[in-house]
């Protein structure tokens, strides 16, 4: 029988998203993986889990992540020259 390898550690509070793809498999990790690059913090964990009020233009419910970076899969891609079509979110 396989042993249950249950950690007592709480889940990590790093919620890492890739700025080039939509992967969300690095949500609630304990530390930034070494193979991601250009990782920067965008908000705190507490902010990331906070409810966003309707009409709040400074926060988005889509911003579930605390950090954004470039994942290993996307690092192999050429630097993006795509137009950011949804960049215009009203500054
Ligand atoms: Zn990626």
Q: Can you walk through the features of this model?
A:
This protein has 91 residues and is mainly beta. It has a domain at 16-75. It has helices at residues 45-49, 72-75; strands at 16-18, 37-41, 67-70. A three-stranded mixed sheet has the order 1-3-2. It is flat, with a radius of gyration of 16 Å. The termini are far apart. The site of zinc ion has 7 residues, from helix 2.
Helical proportion, percent range: under 10%
Number of separate strands: 3
What does the average pLDDT come to?
Answer: 82
The hetero molecules present are:
zinc ion
The assigned structural class equals mainly beta
Shape: flat
Total helices: the number is 2
Question: Secondary-structure element order, as H and E?
Answer: EEHEH
Strands of the widest sheet, in order across it, are 1-3-2
Largest sheet: 3 strands, mixed
pLDDT < 50 stretches: none
Distance between the termini: 58 Å
Please outline the helices and strands:
Elements: E1 16-18, E2 37-41, H1 45-49, E3 67-70, H2 72-75
Parallel strand pairs: 1-3
Antiparallel strand pairs: 2-3
The protein binds zinc ion.
Zinc ion (ZN) binds at residues 18, 20-21, 23, 71, 73-74.
